[in-house]
């Protein structure tokens, strides 16, 4: 499968190069631009800015999303979590003005928007995980004489930690996707999004594509690392139930 | 065979279950008595036989205290108090275990919540003893997903035993197992039933022959003409008919006749 993927990617790149690209820069030009970008003086600063913003946003979002999702098991909080799920359909653009008033500086504004954008997706995935818990698991806890608190801890928290991690991995892509958008709201801190906006403004297509490739590679790399971490932290996730 | 019946350990008195207008269970009455045999810690094994969808699972959950009957009561133990959730162990058909815990920790959870408080060293020793007795020693560090169905079933049963549950309900314990595995399960159940004088296993099964072969009592859950809901239409006391605790039971002509009779009841 890996060989097939590599072969198909190489074929696509060769076809892209041979076609001349038209408006889109050819792979060789993108590669040259990529080399130039990574050697730029402020590249590391921009990269660090984007990464720290993403990680900080992710960390706060997962905590908020977990609290909302866990509380949703209490009937009083259920409508709140359902409302948060529906917030996926709220556009961030319309809320920028409100968030600008609420926050004190550009960094807070970016973090707030990132969190507001990610949390509904996190909550949606987490609720799906919790709703899929089989009744038999709760019944097992009852027969093992576990009280409500122990049952909740065992089944909902410990028993689903691996899936919470998987939700985090899957939603990292959303956070990474949003980062370039929110960075444009306050450019003083820099970031890959700022690099992208500047390159777009001056129609430096090679640089735009070079930055996109960096964002893409980093995203794939993080996905891979988080996947490996999940298997390391929760070894049982690699096992398939035997039916014999 | 020499035996005596003593105190009532489990009793269902006029149990009815109704969902809306639909009567699921009607006037269920039975009792399980403590059986004594000389020189054996003889527990009780009862089979509940009935067709699919008749209400076996609902009765199972009522006995376990997981759902409340519309009317009637289930009482357990010598003091005959109403059953509460957690007083009866359940081994579901698909052997639910904590997949995020190793077999050792799955068993330890049973001991952690037992009425008797033990030190970690004592728990370790008890788990090691049970693992050796029930051929699970080499699997203690594994996760449930690494075990076969039969092995998971064994863990599930032992987990309930370690919790201190003397009453264990088993849902279809022979389902999906090959002949060799069924033999092993039968041996395991017989062993569990003789671990303690008051250990009581209630087996819900479609497999009439194997369930009856290890039971001292067989209940047939069925319907009566013109009456809604399922009830126990027949009770077979295999101790009385000398068909209980016999290793060669499968070839016994009376047993074969009994199986035919049970099949006709369904």
Task: Briefly characterize the structure.
The complex is a heterodimer of chains A (244) and B (266). Chain A has 244 residues and is mainly alpha-helical.
Q: What report would you give on this structure?
A:
The complex is a heterodimer of chains A (244) and B (266). Chain A has helices at 2-19, 27-39, 43-71, 78-86, 96-102, 106-131, 135-143, 148-157, 161-183, 192-201, 205-233. Chain A has 244 residues and is mainly α. In chain A, helix 3 (43-71) packs across helix 6, helix 3 (43-71) crosses helix 10 and helix 6 packs antiparallel against helix 9. The longest helix of chain A is centred in the first third of the chain and has 29 residues, at 43-71. Chain A is globular. With 266 residues, chain B is of the alpha/beta class. Chain B has a domain at 97-164. Chain B is built from seven helices and ten strands. In chain B, the strands form two sheets. In chain B, strands 6-7-8-3-9-10 form a six-stranded mixed sheet, sandwiched between helices. In chain B, strands 2-1-4-5 form a four-stranded antiparallel sheet, with helices on one face. Classes of the chains: A mainly alpha (244), B alpha/beta (266). Chain A binds chain B through residues 134, 136-137, 139-140, 142-146, 150, 154, 158-159, 161-162, 234-236, 239-244, and chain B through 64, 66, 85-86, 88-90, 92, 94, 96-100, 109-110, 113-115, 143-149, 159-160, 163, 165, 176. Chain B: InterPro entries: AAA+_ATPase, ABC_SmlMolc_Importer, ABC_transporter-like_ATP-bd, ABC_transporter-like_CS, P-loop_NTPase. Chain B: It comes from Chitinophaga agrisoli. Chain B: Keywords: ATP-binding, Nucleotide-binding, Transport.
């Amino acid at each position: 499968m890996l060989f097939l993927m590599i072969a198909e990617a190489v074929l696509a790149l060769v076809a892209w190069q041979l076609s001349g690209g038209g408006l889109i820069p050819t792979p060789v030009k993108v590669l040259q631009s990529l080399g130039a970008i990574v050697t730029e003086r402020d590249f590391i600063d921009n990269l660090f800015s984007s990464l720290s913003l993403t990680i900080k946003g992710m960390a706060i979002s997962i905590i908020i999303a977990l609290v909302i999702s866990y509380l949703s098991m209490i009937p009083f909080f259920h409508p709140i979590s359902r409302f948060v799920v529906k917030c996926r359909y709220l556009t961030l653009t319309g809320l920028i003005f409100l968030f600008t008033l609420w926050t004190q500086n550009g960094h807070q504004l970016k973090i707030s928007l990132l969190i507001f954008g990610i949390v509904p997706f996190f909550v949606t995935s987490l609720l799906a995980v919790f709703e899929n818990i089989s009744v038999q698991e709760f019944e097992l806890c009852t027969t093992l004489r576990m009280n409500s608190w122990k049952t909740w801890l065992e089944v909902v928290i410990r028993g689903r930690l691996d899936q919470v991690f998987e939700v985090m991995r899957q939603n990292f892509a959303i956070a990474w996707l949003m980062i370039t958008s929110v960075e444009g709201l306050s450019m003083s801190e820099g970031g890959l999004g700022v690099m992208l906006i500047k390159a777009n403004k001056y129609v430096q297509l090679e640089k735009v594509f070079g930055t996109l490739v960096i964002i893409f590679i980093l995203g794939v790399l993080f996905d891979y690392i988080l996947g490996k971490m999940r298997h390391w932290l929760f070894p049982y996730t690699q096992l398939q139930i035997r039916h014999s | 065979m020499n035996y005596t019946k003593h105190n009532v350990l489990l009793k269902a008195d006029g149990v009815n279950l109704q969902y809306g207008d639909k009567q699921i269970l009607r006037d269920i009455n039975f009792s399980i008595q403590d059986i004594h045999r000389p020189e054996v810690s003889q527990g009780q094994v009862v089979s509940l036989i009935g067709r699919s969808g008749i209400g076996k699972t609902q009765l199972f959950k009522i006995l376990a205290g997981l759902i409340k009957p519309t009317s009637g009561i289930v009482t357990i133990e010598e003091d005959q108090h109403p059953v509460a959730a957690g007083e009866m162990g359940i081994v579901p058909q698909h052997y639910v275990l904590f997949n995020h815990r190793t077999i050792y920790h799955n068993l330890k959870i049973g001991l952690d919540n037992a009425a008797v408080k033990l030190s970690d060293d004592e728990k370790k020793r008890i788990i090691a003893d049970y693992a050796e007795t029930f051929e699970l020693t080499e699997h203690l560090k594994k996760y449930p997903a690494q075990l076969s169905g039969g092995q998971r079933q064994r863990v599930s049963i032992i987990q309930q035993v370690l919790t201190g549950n003397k009453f264990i309900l088993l849902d279809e314990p022979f389902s999906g197992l090959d002949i060799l595995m069924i033999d092993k399960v039968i041996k395991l159940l017989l062993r569990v039933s003789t671990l303690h004088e008051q250990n009581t296993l209630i087996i819900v099964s479609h497999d009439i022959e194997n369930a009856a072969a290890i039971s001292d009592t067989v209940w047939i859950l069925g319907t009566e003409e013109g009456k809604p809901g399922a009830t126990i239409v027949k009770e077979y006391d295999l101790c009385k008919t000398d068909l209980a605790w016999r290793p060669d039971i499968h070839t016994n002509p009376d047993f074969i006749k009994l199986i035919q009779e049970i099949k006709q009841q369904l």
